[in-house]
Amino acid sequence: MNPQLKKGLLEFCVLATLKKEDSYGYQIIKDTSNVVEISDSTLYPILKRLEAQGEIESYRVEHNGRLRKYFHLTLAGQASIDSFLADWPAVMGIYTYIRECNND
């Protein structure tokens, strides 16, 4: 997949994963692996950006004697997902146009 296209979709994959349940970095990578490949070095800046934008919140929970950072989807994060889904028909229109032009 084109890296620029992938980059634009990764944030929404992370938000969708957190809609299911609160999660932590490694689990988010595992949960999204069947859809998109994402590395630690890619995920953590995304999480930081989403938190700065108010779309997710973080909290810490002790696990096996260590603190694990969990992330939670906020109402702003849900609104971002809703906006993405509302825009999808326009994206599909562009896809259809490109496909039709390619079949000529």
From TrEMBL:
<protein>
    <submittedName>
        <fullName>PadR family transcriptional regulator</fullName>
    </submittedName>
</protein>
<dbReference type="InterPro" id="IPR036390">
    <property type="entry name" value="WH_DNA-bd_sf"/>
</dbReference>
<dbReference type="InterPro" id="IPR036388">
    <property type="entry name" value="WH-like_DNA-bd_sf"/>
</dbReference>
<dbReference type="Pfam" id="PF03551">
    <property type="entry name" value="PadR"/>
</dbReference>
<dbReference type="InterPro" id="IPR052509">
    <property type="entry name" value="Metal_resp_DNA-bind_regulator"/>
</dbReference>
<feature type="domain" description="Transcription regulator PadR N-terminal">
    <location>
        <begin position="14"/>
        <end position="81"/>
    </location>
</feature>
<dbReference type="InterPro" id="IPR005149">
    <property type="entry name" value="Tscrpt_reg_PadR_N"/>
</dbReference>
